[in-house]
Specification:
The chain has a single domain, classed as Rossmann fold. It has seven helices and six strands; from the N terminus they run H-E-H-E-H-E-H-E-H-E-H-E-H. It has helices spanning about 5-15, 30-40, 50-60, 75-90, 110-125, 140-150, 160-165; strands at about 20-25, 45, 65-70, 95-100, 130, 155-160. It has a six-stranded parallel beta sheet. The chain is globular and about 40 Å long. It starts with a helix and ends with a helix.
Length: about 170
C-alpha cells in the first residue's frame, strides 16, 4: 500500500474522531495497522477472528467510544452472525474498513471468492457500504460512513479498492 493511502486512512479516522480500533492482521493493510499501533490517538485491541472484532467494537460503542474494525473482506463471512445479531437484532452499529481482496488485478487466486461474495453479503445484511477507488475519496468516505452509522445505528463498511491496496 502506498504511504499516502495509509496516511489518508489514518487521517480520516482521526478527523472522524475514531479513538478505538480492533483489527485482524491482513497483508494489504499491514501498513495501516503499523501506523495505528504507533499513534497514541488510538486504543487498539487485536481480535482473534473477524466476528470477535465486530463484537469488540460493538462493546466499545456501548462504552462511549468511536470504534472501527479493520479486517480482510473475506472476514465478512465470518462476522456475518455477529453483524446480524448485534447490528440488525439490537441496533448496535459497527464501522468496518476492509480491503477489496478479489478486486480486478488481485494476483492471488484464493482471493477471488472474497471479491465475489463481498457486495452480496453486505447487501444481504443490509449494511450500507462504499467502495473507494480514488485516494482523494478516502477521507470524505470515512467521514461520511461514520455519519451514516451515527444516524442509522447500523453497521457500515468502507471498502478500499484493490488498486489502492496493492
Amino acid at each position: 500500500m502506498r504511504r499516502s493511502v495509509t496516511e489518508a486512512i489514518v487521517q480520516g479516522l482521526k478527523e472522524t474522531g475514531i479513538d478505538f480500533v480492533s483489527y485482524l492482521p491482513e497483508s494489504w493493510m499491514h501498513d495501516v495497522y503499523d501506523a495505528i499501533l504507533e499513534d497514541p490517538s488510538f486504543e487498539v485491541v487485536l481480535g482473534t477472528n473477524e466476528g470477535e472484532c465486530v463484537g469488540i467494537v460493538s462493546g466499545a460503542w456501548l462504552g462511549g467510544r468511536k470504534p472501527v474494525a479493520i479486517f480482510e473482506n473475506s472476514g465478512l463471512r465470518v462476522a456475518s452472525e455477529t453483524l446480524a445479531r448485534l447490528g440488525i437484532g439490537h441496533g448496535i452499529p459497527s464501522f468496518m474498513i476492509m480491503p477489496y481482496r478479489g478486486d480486478f488485478g488481485d494476483k492471488d487466486w484464493w482471493a477471488i471468492p472474497s471479491g465475489d461474495t463481498l457486495m452480496p453479503m453486505l447487501e444481504a445484511l443490509k449494511i450500507p457500504y462504499k467502495l473507494v477507488e480514488r485516494e482523494e475519496d478516502i477521507i470524505p468516505t470515512i467521514k461520511g460512513a461514520w455519519e451514516v452509522l451515527y444516524v442509522s445505528k447500523r453497521p457500515v463498511a468502507v471498502i478500499i479498492g484493490g488498486r489502492l491496496c496493492q
